Amino acid sequence: MVELDVVRTEAGRETEWLARRELRRQIAALEGRLSSALVTAFPYGTVDMDAPAPPARQPGPRVLGLGELEEVRDALAARLAEAAREIDALAERQARARVRLERMLLQPGRHRLERVANAELGEGGCGVWQVRPRLGLIGMLMGWWQVKLSSGCPLAT
Question: Among 67, 90, 75, which Cα is nearest to 19's?
Fold first, then answer.
């Protein structure tokens, strides 16, 4: 009887060890994907990277139980899904801005005084594409419109 109990506890320990290992692998993979999402969105937007605190029931260092590891994994999965939604929304806004710029370039007269900033396009710099009249007031009265890119930040170093 005693030998059978020892075999059961060793099998239970091995099963728990394998479960912990798998959960830690999943958590590491989710953290890697979340950091990759941050790098993807960084120059042109942000992704919320604030991690929820792991469940704390006892003060001091300790080994998380299986349930707590599952909570951490599920929280990371939820944050990753939210980051993916934010990146998709950012990409959609940038695509709409690119379409607006293309239309401005093709038919400047239909987009009088319209502006598209480089930041809206997902590009660096402070430049702004703007439809302006050629030759000022005379060009405005004559319908001579052109698209110009501003030189960018006046105080850039």
Answer: 67
Select the highest-mean-pLDDT range: 5-9, 65-69, 106-110, 142-146. Answer: 106-110
Q: Which residues contact 156 (CB under 8 A, 6 or more apart)?
A: 126
Cα separation of 6 and 55, whole Å? Answer: 32
Phi/psi of residue 85, nearest 5 degrees: -65, -40
- In angstroms, rounded to a whole number, what is the distance separating the alpha carbons of residues 104 and 128? 12
The residue type found at 101 is L
What pLDDT does residue 1 have? 46
- List CB contacts of 26: < 8 A, sequence separation 6 or more: 73
pTM over 0.70: no
- CA dist 136 and 139 (Å) reads 5
Q: Could you tell me the two tokens for 47?
A: 């992704």
Q: Do the beta carbons of residue 30 and residue 76 sit within 8 Å?
A: yes
**How many C-beta neighbours within 10 Å does residue 57 have?**
7
Domain range summary for the chain, segments of one domain joined by +: 2-90, 107-149
Element (H, E) at 116: strand 115-117
Tokens of 107: 């038919």
